[in-house]
Specification:
Elements: E1 2-8, H1 13-28, H2 34-45, E2 52-61, E3 82-94, H3 100-111, H4 116-123, E4 126-134, H5 143-152, E5 159-165, H6 173-180, E6 184-190, E7 199-205
Parallel strand pairs: 4-5
Antiparallel strand pairs: 1-2, 2-3, 3-4, 5-7, 6-7
Helix pairs in contact: 1-2
């Protein structure tokens, strides 16, 4: 078994979007069927400036099988097959003032006491990390960090921003990953319109060393 990273493109979305949404639903523990209404949104994101996506693919090679009748010492004539499964997805795009998340962020920063100059500086040139998910069966393997590092490696923006649900003591795998990679607090316990959960907005400067 091995895990490799692949760059995902809008041209081959028909191959990876369904499996990626399945990973998203499993990682977030959302009800089955969530994929249906998230599909149009993810497709819309692909049309935004600077969109980029990375996937993690698990390769499993089955054991070669010898056909009946061959001698024990003969090499197998039926080669083992390789099965590839998408087990991780990360994507984002360049933030812009006409985007819902940007508008929510600016409102939150105003409520958080940031000045207009500070808000303009934060939101002027950033990459929004929109989704980062690893299937629960493969979490703890370092896959999330590998995907995020690759996704941000050559981004031209000044910074990367993301939002993530609050958890007690900032103690889950996502939070530990973001802290390990140097993400700091921008907003805490912020409520996005239409979602009752409290969120944190985290960010760090680019490039990543």
């Amino acid at each position: 078994m091995s895990i490799r990273l692949v760059d995902l493109t809008a041209d081959d979305v028909h191959r990876w979007l369904g499996p990626a949404l399945d990973v998203y639903v499993a990682a977030m523990n959302y009800p089955r069927g969530t994929q249906t209404y998230r599909t149009p949104l993810w497709r819309d994101h692909m049309n935004r400036p600077g969109w980029q996506a990375v996937g993690a693919v698990q390769s499993t090679v089955s054991t070669p099988v010898s056909p009946a009748g061959t001698s024990a010492g003969d090499p197998p004539t039926l080669a083992g097959s390789t099965t590839e499964t998408l087990i991780g997805i990360a994507y984002g795009y360049r933030g812009a003032e006409d985007q819902w998340w940007n508008q929510q962020l600016r409102a939150g920063l105003r409520l958080g006491g940031y000045t207009r100059t500070q808000i303009d500086d934060i939101t002027r040139n950033y990459f929004e990390l929109t989704e980062l998910h690893v299937h629960p069966s493969m979490q703890g393997t370092g896959t999330g960090q590998r995907m995020l590092t690759r996704l941000l490696a050559d981004r031209p923006e000044d910074s990367v921003l993301l939002s993530t649900p609050e958890v007690p003591g900032d103690d889950n795998r996502a939070w530990r990953l973001y802290r390990r990679l140097g993400f700091g607090d921008m907003l805490r316990h912020f409520g996005f319109t239409g979602d009752p959960r409290p969120f944190a907005v985290l960010g760090r400067r680019l490039p990543m060393n």
